[in-house]
Design brief:
about 300 residues; 2 domains; P-loop_NTPase; ATP hydrolysis activity; 6-stranded mixed beta sheet; AAA+_ATPase; ATP-binding
Length: about 300
């Protein structure tokens, strides 16, 4: 339905997006992941026709939208990172304004406003001013505005950043319902891996302007099929013991977390025994351990050298 072909964008001498090839089938929910500065938002801005590519093409149903951007604007809804609402207007007034901008017919505009308010769970608050809403409620209205014209493709750029758990859950439920029940094609970026795992059938991972991996969750996890993740807790932790573990044979990555130390190693290595021995030499005890199958977060870390929130 929608594809990018060798898509690139330069700002002066800096190449921010470098030859991106992506596609979205009709009705798919696709994740776009990458650390800060990877080029995700610039890619989204080009797809939604807000930025013109330096080179490459974007096609909708086989037709180029770089030369004719109005075609994508009729069928796409974009939920940007920044709240794009009028604070001094009510939720209802904002949705009426955006509905008119999207050229929703007057005869169906009122019903559509009520439908999208119902979707995001704010029908009872529609007459209140946006400036009185919490951050999570504003983001829900932001999504509602992007849905006014019943877009075939919905692009969401980190829609749950800095919001309360109730609003976050409501947003995830809304996106899932739009995709599964209404057949809306979704492109979703987030700093929360669990959201992408819940919502997306396929995932693209970007870093330094390039797509460095793509596929279904199963296909991406197969990248680490020969590796194992171990989470250990020690009686005490220091930079020295972390460096010692990092130097053990077959250890691929070591990271200190809130739960202790997370180690990715070769699957067949007897890594736990090696960690216990290394700790004992330093007079430190392993107080708890857990062996885990690598997650998408581990794949991301393996490919980019960073956690998703970095």
């Amino acid at each position: 339905m929608l594809e990018t072909i060798n898509l690139s964008k330069n700002f002066k001498d800096k190449k921010v997006v470098d030859g991106i090839d992506m596609y979205l089938e009709q009705g798919e929910s696709v994740g776009l992941l990458g650390p800060n500065g990877a080029g995700k938002s610039t890619t989204i801005s080009m797809i939604s026709s807000l930025l013109k590519p330096t080179s490459g093409d974007i096609k909708l149903g086989g037709k180029s939208i770089v030369r004719n951007p109005s075609e994508i604007r009729d069928v796409i809804g974009v939920v940007p990172q920044e709240i794009a609402l009028y604070e001094e207007l009510s939720a209802y007034e904002n949705l009426k304004f955006f509905g008119e901008i999207y050229k929703v017919k007057k005869g169906v505009l009122e019903n559509r406003i009520q439908e999208v308010l119902e979707m995001v769970g704010l029908k009872e608050r529609q007459k209140e001013l946006i400036k009185t809403f919490s951050g999570g409620m504003k983001r829900r209205i932001n999504i509602a505005a992007a849905l006014m014209h019943k877009p075939q493709v919905l692009i969401l750029d980190e829609p749950t950043v800095g919001i309360d758990p109730q609003s976050r859950n409501r947003i995830l439920e809304t996106v899932r319902e739009l995709n599964e029940s209404h057949g809306t094609t979704v492109l979703y970026t987030s700093h929360y891996m669990e959201e992408v795992e819940q919502l997306c059938n396929r995932v693209y991972i970007m870093d330094h302007g390039k797509v460095i991996a793509s596929g279904s969750k199963t296909e991406l996890l197969s990248i680490l099929s020969s590796e194992l993740t171990v989470q250990v807790q020690l009686s005490e932790t220091s930079d020295h013991i972390i460096d010692t573990i990092r130097l053990l044979d077959h250890v691929r990555h070591v990271e200190e977390t809130n739960e202790g130390i997370r180690i990715i190693s070769k699957r067949d290595a007897n890594i736990l025994s090696a960690i216990v021995l290394a700790a004992e030499k330093e007079g430190i005890q392993v107080t708890h351990y857990q062996m885990e199958t690598p997650s998408l977060e581990d794949v991301f870390l393996h490919l980019t050298g960073k956690t998703l929130r970095d």
